[in-house]
């Protein structure tokens, strides 16, 4: 029994931020019904390649993107633009604790599926809306995409090589961090609302914005600007306040060294046979190393190129200098620590057969997460849900399907 096994979630969201949130809730035991458009489904079903292959090696319709954010959910197809489809959603909402959606502001009002409409049917409903810019403000009605938000929210202004390098430019993250962090914050907000409801009987509305979230997760960078008034800049893989704290070239690749204090710095250069760099008056303390980084870093790079990545990591781990490799994903999933933590899991899927997933990182001792359901095929559970929740007969379901409602 998961911690949220008593919770029912109606998921009207698509793409990433909303589904990331609902997958968290589902991993914790919630019964999540994912509502998709008939025939087409969630946009991410078509975002590929890659698509998973079946046991015969043939490509299926299950995209890697969809797979990563939709396990432990049941899929129902409903056309919410039609009155009968809207009625199905209303009936499901009445039986749900939580509704999550990421439509444009006021889009669901015309269908009678917005918070104000649904709370009349279920006053203690928790309703979470996820949009690019939130429900208020001059940008509220703009569509919001992760890439745009990374730029607007300041992330790209501090990501990428410094302008002093030829060809340097702002860079986005390798994953959609604004979407993912918004999904994580939405999960936290929803759980707080559940606690409040359980204490008071009150439901509430949650307004999540990608832009708000992106600025919030800039953490010390946002704080540094608000504190000093100085606009932060790009430092590539280096730190503006700690040296050496960056990537270094080795004889056969790259490694990360994160020497956070003077002792670690001394151990680093001693391991490379260059202990004199610790005694140099220009480099003795971190503030001095920050001030003279342009002189120090080239000297350290000459030193690090003399050994292989594995040689360096073995040396530095012995003297407790924080370091690590830059792994590709083959190396990630072959890493002994990753294997020991069971990060990769296998689940049975109706078309793929054996499907490989990344496990939830939430490890609870009393109510552990588990994969109960593989990411669903489109509409896989439509009949099951309509029988179970709405008590519809086979004939009624067949009629809805004939009319294109489901």
Q: How would you describe the overall organization of this protein?
A:
This protein is of the alpha/beta class. It has 2 domains: 8-217 and 362-402, Crotonobetainyl-coa:carnitine coa-transferase, domain 1 (Rossmann fold), CATH 3.40.50.10540; 245-332, formyl-coa transferase, domain 3 (2-Layer Sandwich). Helix content is 37%, strand content 17%. It contains 17 helices and 13 strands. The chain has helices spanning 17-27, 64-67, 83-94, 115-121, 146-152, 177-200, 210-216, 220-228, 262-271, 276-279, 286-291, 293-304, 309-318, 329-334, 336-340, 382-390, 394-402, and strands at 8-12, 31-36, 51-53, 59-63, 73-77, 98-101, 126-131, 204-209, 245-250, 253-258, 323-325, 344-349, 353-358. The strands form 4 sheets. A 6-stranded parallel β-sheet has the order 5-2-1-6-7-8, sandwiched between helices. A 3-stranded antiparallel β-sheet has the order 9-10-11, covered by helices on one side. Strands 3-4 form a two-stranded antiparallel ribbon. It is elongated and about 85 Å long. The mean pLDDT is 96.
